[in-house]
Amino acid sequence: QVQLVESGGGLVQAGGSLRLSCAASGSIFSINTMGWYRQAPGKQRELVAALTSGGGTKYADSVKGRFTISRTNAKNMVYLQMSSLKPEDTAVYYCNADGYSAGYFDSWGQGTQVTVSS
């Protein structure tokens, strides 16, 4: 079973920065895509950023130029550097990864709260 654990959330003022981290553990053979999603109260979960094993990236339009996703393949970790944060970035941020262990997996972390005050 593959587990994802996020860290780095918290409370920050508008314009500030935060860095989220996510560690994948378990009997992992390979990871395809690692990404970050977020869900604000009353809204659907949405993709924030994703990074493939080949280095391809995808960002939500709302975070382009402000957020940067990166990963350390050897450590099965993914990061989200968030800058110029806005109150509308307030949400629970979830880490996601898919790949192969004993079989195919698509796992989610428990989520970490990010709150941006105005």
Q: Could you explain the architecture of this structure?
A:
The protein is mostly beta strands. The strands form 2 sheets. Strands 2, 4, 5, 6, 9, 10 and 11 form a 7-stranded mixed beta sheet that branches. The model has no long low-confidence stretch (mean pLDDT 96).
Give the helix/strand layout.
Blueprint: E1 3-7, E2 10-13, E3 18-25, E4 30-39, E5 46-52, E6 57-59, E7 67-72, E8 77-82, E9 91-100, E10 104-108, E11 112-117
Parallel strand pairs: 2-11
Antiparallel strand pairs: 1-3, 3-8, 4-5, 4-9, 5-6, 7-8, 9-10, 9-11
Précis, in short:
This protein is mainly β and 118 residues long. The protein is built from no helices and 11 strands. Helix content is 0%, strand content 59%.
Q: What distance lies between the first and last C-alpha atoms, to the nearest angstrom?
A: 40 Å
**Based on CA inertia axes, which overall geometry fits?**
elongated
Mean pLDDT: 96
Major pleated sheet? 7 strands, mixed
Unreliable stretches covering 5 or more consecutive residues: none
- Strand residues, percent: over 45%
User: What is the alpha-carbon Rg in Å?
Assistant: 14 Å
Instruction: Report the structural category.
Output: mainly beta
Number of continuous helical runs = 0
For this entry, give a set of tags.
seven-stranded mixed β-sheet; 59% strand; 118 residues; mainly beta
